[in-house]
């Protein structure tokens, strides 16, 4: 697949060079053939290394690879993958869902990339298209910030007909718009030669934008101005360990996850909710001594019980009102413990 892709890409480059007179208005006729590194391949650059350099192994894929067997890729040791999502403001990789979701489901840290065409529309417009069609970022510890593939023009002049200052302005437009849309600075994929030629070796992105350097060499070589190290190195476009292009991440697995998380450690898990407060104690039931003076004994007994009191001693005393209560102790309205006795004096006939 790798060698055939190089040959076909070179053929396409020849055709587009012959049609360069069409300029910026020529149609985006082969977005499915453009991938991270297709510009190097079109210049007959061939990989030097036959074995993977040091670093966490990974890969990048596009529609060239079609549906990817991600379980095999993961079993062979891949830790991360970048997947082409978009190009310009009209193309979306038809295999993107299977490739992007499949990488995640297989346990890889994954990201999406956009193939930039600076002569077709503004950087902001292409960042918007990218973020809307697969290039958004999610804070799940498994999604890398989106990447901008900016390299040799597959449709004409190397620098897309832009001056160095205009190219820097276009890149700034893309980078700042993507950050505004996603809160993340994008990764930039490029070669040192293209960067020097087309931006004048601009050094203004190194402080915030991670570098994905393409160099099919023994070492990553000289880096563009502003970057003292790379985050990712694409070291071959041949299928050495995995489908597509071969990459290594410059760091540990924790560093890779930190890049996915925006350079911050993953958020701690939410603490469990506090326990529910204990139920309130049952209300204290007291005996509030009812007034039963003048009532018959049976009725007085019922009222006393309803007031949570108990009928205590009943004294029968000669009185005019036979069978009725004419005295009680404690007095009505007194508060006592539940079940407290209420003693009564009830009238009886005189002898």
Description of the molecule:
This protein is an alpha/beta fold. It is built from nine helices and 14 strands. The strands form three sheets. Strands 1-2-4-5-6-7-8-9 form an eight-stranded mixed barrel, surrounded by four helices. The protein has a three-stranded mixed beta sheet with strand order 11-14-12. A two-stranded antiparallel ribbon has the order 10-13. The protein starts with a helix and ends with a strand. It has helices spanning 2-18, 38-42, 70-75, 96-105, 123-135, 164-182, 192-199, 253-260, 297-306; strands at 56-61, 80-87, 91-92, 109-115, 147-149, 187-190, 211-214, 232-236, 245-249, 286-288, 310-318, 325-329, 335-337, 341-348. α5 runs parallel beside α6 (164-182).
Give a quick summary of the entry.
The chain has nine helices and 14 strands. With 351 residues, it is an alpha/beta fold.
Write the topology of this structure.
Elements lengths: L1 H17 L19 H5 L13 E6 L8 H6 L4 E8 L3 E2 L3 H10 L3 E7 L7 H13 L11 E3 L14 H19 L4 E4 L1 H8 L11 E4 L17 E5 L8 E5 L3 H8 L25 E3 L8 H10 L3 E9 L6 E5 L5 E3 L3 E8 L3
Helix pairs in contact: 5-6
């Amino acid at each position: 697949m790798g060698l055939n892709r190089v040959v076909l890409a070179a053929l396409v480059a020849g055709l587009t060079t012959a049609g360069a007179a069409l300029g910026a208005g020529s149609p985006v006729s082969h977005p499915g053939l453009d991938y991270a590194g297709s510009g190097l391949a079109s210049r007959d650059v061939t990989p030097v290394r036959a074995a993977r350099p040091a670093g966490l192994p990974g890969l990048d894929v596009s529609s060239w690879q079609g549906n990817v067997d991600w379980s095999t890729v993961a079993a062979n040791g891949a830790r991360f993958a970048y997947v082409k999502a978009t190009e310009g403001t009209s193309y979306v990789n038809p295999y993107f869902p299977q490739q992007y979701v499949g990488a995640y489901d297989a346990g890889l840290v994954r990201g999406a990339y956009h193939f930039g065409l600076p002569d077709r529309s503004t950087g902001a417009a292409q960042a918007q298209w990218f973020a809307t069609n697969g290039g958004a970022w999610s804070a799940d510890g498994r999604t890398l910030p989106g990447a901008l593939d900016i390299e040799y023009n597959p449709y004409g002049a190397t620098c897309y007909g832009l001056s160095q200052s205009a190219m820097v302005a276009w890149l700034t437009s893309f980078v700042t718009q993507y950050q505004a849309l996603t809160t993340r600075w994008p990764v930039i994929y490029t070669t040192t030669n293209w960067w020097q030629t087309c931006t004048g070796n601009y050094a203004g992105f190194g402080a915030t934008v991670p570098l994905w350097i393409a160099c099919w060499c023994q070492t990553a070589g000289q880096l563009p101005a502003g970057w003292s190290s790379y985050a990712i190195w694409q070291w071959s476009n041949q299928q050495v360990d995995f489908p597509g292009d071969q990459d290594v991440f410059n760091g540990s697995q924790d560093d890779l996850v930190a890049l996915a998380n925006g350079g911050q450690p993953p958020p701690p898990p939410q603490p469990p909710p506090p326990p529910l407060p204990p139920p309130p104690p049952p209300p204290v039931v007291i005996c509030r001594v009812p007034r039963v003076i003048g009532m018959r004994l049976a009725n007085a007994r019922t009222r006393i019980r309803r007031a949570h009191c108990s009928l205590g001693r009943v004294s029968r005393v000669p009185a005019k009102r036979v069978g009725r209560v004419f005295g009680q102790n404690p007095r009505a309205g007194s508060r006592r413990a539940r079940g407290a006795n209420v003693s009564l004096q009830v009238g009886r006939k005189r002898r």
